[in-house]
Amino acid sequence: MAITAKDVMELRKQTDCGMMECKKALTEADGNFEKAVEILRERGLATAAKKASRTAAEGMVYAEYCPQCKVGVVIEVNAETDFVAKNDKFVAFVKEATQVIMKQNPADVEALMACKTESGETVDEALKNLILVIKENIKVRRFVRYEGVCSAYVHGGGTHGILVNFETTNDIDAKDEFVAYGKDIAMQVAAANPSYVDEASVPAEVVAKEKEIMLAQMAGDPKNANKPEAVKQKMIEGKIKKFFKENCLVDQEFVKDGDLSVAQYTAKVAKDLGGDIKIVKFTRFQKGEGLEKRADDFAAEVASMVK
Asked: Residue 293 — pLDDT band, cuts 50, 70, 90?
C-alpha cells in the first residue's frame, strides 16, 4: 500500500513522533494506523513524544576544547530533574553530542539532531533512546562552537559552562602557562558574569540607555537635581567608567588578584610567554537560565504515588 505524505502527517499529529519514524511505522504496518501507533509505542517513541511536553530545566552544561583541532564547544542539555545530571548514560550522551558538534559543525540544534554519531544512529535517535532509559523529557537546548585557540571550563559539575576564544602569537597557546591563564579567564567569566569583552563591544544604544537612566536618577535625587549640567555630565562619565569596569571582561578586577584588571593580567602573561594575547569572545551558559522550572513538591509527588 502506498504511504502518502498526508498519512504521515496524520500519524505524526496523533503520536507527536518524528516524520521519519511515522513513515517507517506506516510502511511496516502496510498503512494500518492502529498498527503503526502500536509499532511506535512498542519502540517507545510515542512515550518519548509524550514526555516532550514536560518541563526540562535541569540537566547539565558542558564545555570542551580540542587543542589538536583548535575547536571548542559549550552545550546545554536539559532534563526534568537534577538527578539526571549524575546519570552516566546522560553524561555520555552530552559528551557524544559535543563531539558531533566539534567534528561536524551543525548550524543549529535542528541540524545537530540529524547528524550521525559514531554508532551510526542520528543524535535524535540517540536522544529518543536515552529518554526511554531515563524516563524523563530531555532536550538539547543550545550550543556554541568556536574555532581557534580556546579555553573551556565547567563549574559545579555542570551548573555553568564557559568557552573563551583567544588570538595568540608565537605558539604560546601550547604552553602550560597559557593553559593555566585560559582557565583563569574562563573562571573569571563564570564568577563575575561579564556582559561584554571590552568597551568597544558595548553597543552604543546600551551606553545611551545607561546615561538616560543615570540622568533620571540624578533628576530624582535632591542632592544632584539642581547641579549644573556640566557637573552632571562629569558625574555621568564617572558612572559610565564604573559600568564598563563591572560589565566588560577586560576592565573587571581579576578575581584572583584584585590589584590587577583582567587586561593587566593578560598583558603580564603575554609578556612572560613572549607573545600577544587577545580575548576575542566568550560564551557563558548557566543551566536552566531563562527556563521556568518545575515547582512540584517532590515529597508530595512521592506520597501521591504511594497512595
From this structure: low
